[in-house]
Amino acid sequence: MKLFVDMGNSRVKWRLRGRDTVLEGEGAIGSDSLFADLPVDDEGIRQVAVSTVASDQGRQQLEQRLREITRVPPEYFWTESQWQGVICAYDKPESMGSDRWHAMVAAHSRVTGGFAVVDAGSAVTVDYVAADGRHLGGYILAGQNMMYRALSQDAARIHFGGRIQGDSAPGSSTAECVHHGVEWLWRGMVQQLREDVRTLGLEKVFITGGDSDRLIGCGLQGESVPGLVLDGLEIVAAGVRED
Same CATH fold, 82-144+171-232 and 2-76? Predict the structure, then answer.
């Protein structure tokens, strides 16, 4: 069996691929329950492939949990200058989050034309790729929870509670001003995305990440692929093994 791990800033998603089965799960970084529901039969795990943007501490916590279920050391797959036709726009590819890279590799395998990848996690990342595989660059923005946390922690006199979703009209209370304001920003981001996709002549938009439904609710049209990063990690890990 092969274990593929997508480790973000706060959550870990995993996929266990056996001969005839594919199982998936997720959990919090540092949680004792991470991988607790991962079934390992007598065949055992032969490969552990990891895509991560986590800190060194997060990686150490991951490796500690992995040692409890397998003796196979994890292989980390980072962003490269190019992979099977996808060409990174960064001068220093290794400085780009591997989750973005693996999502682009997966998206490239699904479409013949240009595309956008939007990953709505703790942060929101947007990447544009031309039909010839050239990465045209992208954006990194604060995710919704990060926005709320910043307003709560860094602005002492802004007090709000609960969640008000789906409305961007001017607010008449502090809570409405905050929640509607975040919605207003996200709808603006979606509008800019639409304009970019049209201007660049991109064929498709792929949406992934824990807050993808919220983006879709703000009007972003595209294909939702929850496991896009894991899909790309599988492609890259398989290619390395073949070499």
Answer: yes
Is 139 marked as a binding-site residue? no
| Domain spans, the chain | 2-76, 82-144+171-232
Q: Is 168 annotated as a binding residue?
A: no
- Fold adopted by 2-76: Nucleotidyltransferase; domain 5 (3.30.420)
CATH entry 3.30.420.40 includes domain 82-144+171-232 = yes
Q: Is 79 annotated as a binding residue?
A: no
Chain segment 44-87, per-residue pLDDT in tens? 889 999 999 988 888 998 998 898 888 899 999 999 999 999 99
Q: Is 99 annotated as a binding residue?
A: yes
Q: Is the pTM of this model over 0.85?
A: yes
In the numeric block, which tokens belong to residue 81?
């200058």
- 99 part of the active site: yes
Choice among 20, 37, 42, 99 that is catalytic = 99
